[in-house]
Amino acid sequence: MGSINHPLALDVTNARKYWWSWPAQRTDGSIDSLSAIPEGTRFRLDPTLDLNTLSMPHATRMMAVAAQKYGLVVRDRTLGAVAFEAEDATRFGVDPYYGSTGWFEGKSASQILSYFPWSRLQALPLQLHNHS
Fold it and tell me: Do 18 and 131 form a contact (C-beta atoms < 8 A)?
C-alpha cells in the first residue's frame, strides 16, 4: 500500500458558530462557545510520538503518518460523527477499502479509526475570522 502525501480532511460533529480559521473561508457551525472547534482548525499528531511503537492497521498508520507530517484540517461538520474524507472508490469498479484483502484489512471504518492515536493530537495556532 501507499502513502498519503497531504493534510487529512477531518469532519467534526459540530463547529464553532461565527468563527473560522484559514484555510476555511466560512463556517456553518452552530455552537456559540469558546470550546467549540472552528472550521479550518489545523491539528497534527505530536511530532515526538514514535508511530513505530504503536500497533495499528496499515491504513491507520498511513493516516497517522500523514497527520504527523502534514496535519489534519477541520473541513466541515457532520452533526453526528467524527469523520475523515477519503477518495471515492466507485471509479475503481470495486471498493478497495473493504473485504479481507482491502485497505481496511476486513475491519470497519470505525475499527480502523479506533487505532488512531487521538489523544496525541495537538491544535496548531489559529488565524481566526468572524462573520457575526
Answer: yes
pTM: 0.86
**Counted domains in the chain:** 1
In angstroms, rounded to a whole number, what is the distance separating the alpha carbons of residues 88 and 94? 11
Dihedral sign computed on CA atoms, order 87, 89, 90, 93: positive
pLDDT means per 10 residues in the chain (132 residues)? 88 94 93 94 97 94 96 92 79 78 85 94 94 74
DSSP 43: E
* Residue numbers of the domain that contains 119: 8-130
Residue 10 near residue 84 (C-beta atoms within 8 A): yes
